[in-house]
């Protein structure tokens, strides 16, 4: 896949995912606080989990961005672009709720520490942070740093792919929130 097309596709996916996440903040209290009978999270807890996951992934993305920009001085970006391939099918499974078992770290579990307004504001900032990274690496520089992602055995993924992962993670939980709403 063309890296420039991928970057544009990631931006589009981010917009759609984050816009949809944002709409969940406008739901009524009954929807936000409905506790599924299976003991799953409420919509409010899911929103907090999205915020927390974004927070920790953005730390890794920031480090990767810095390393990629340093590597730009010593590596041939054109060769990286020429040899780049993207396994969309494997990535897209990340966005499918229930597609595989996913054990999240404890620090990404909701604790009820932020209000809905605070979470909404921070998630909006996180969206703009992702766009900023993609703009800074618009020529494909994100290819110049790879970090291991164990989820769904993705292996070594580049910085742009990490941002796509973040967006897919939100998409996965949008489905979970919709399930909550349907079952309340």
UniProtKB/TrEMBL annotation:
SUPFAM superfamilies: DinB/YfiT-like putative metalloenzymes. It holds the Pfam family DinB_2. InterPro entries: DinB-like, DinB/YfiT-like. Residues 29-177 form the DinB-like domain. This is DinB superfamily. It comes from Chryseobacterium indoltheticum.
């Amino acid at each position: 896949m063309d890296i420039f097309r991928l970057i544009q596709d990631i931006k589009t996916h981010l917009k759609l995912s984050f816009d949809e996440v944002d709409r969940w903040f406008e739901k009524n209290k009954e929807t936000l606080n409905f506790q599924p009978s299976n003991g799953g999270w409420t919509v409010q807890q899911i929103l907090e989990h999205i915020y927390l996951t974004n927070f920790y992934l953005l730390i890794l993305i920031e480090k990767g961005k810095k390393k990629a920009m340093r590597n730009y001085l010593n590596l041939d970006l054109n060769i990286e672009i020429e040899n780049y391939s993207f396994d969309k099918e494997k990535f897209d499974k990340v966005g499918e709720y229930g597609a595989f078992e996913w054990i999240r770290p404890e620090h990404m579990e909701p604790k009820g520490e932020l209000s809905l307004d605070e979470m909404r504001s921070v998630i909006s900032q996180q969206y703009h942070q992702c766009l900023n990274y993609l703009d800074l690496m618009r020529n494909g520089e994100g290819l110049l740093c790879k970090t291991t992602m164990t989820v769904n055995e993705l292996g070594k993924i580049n910085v742009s792919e990490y941002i796509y992962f973040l967006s897919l993670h939100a998409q996965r939980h949008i489905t979970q929130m919709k399930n909550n709403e349907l079952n309340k």
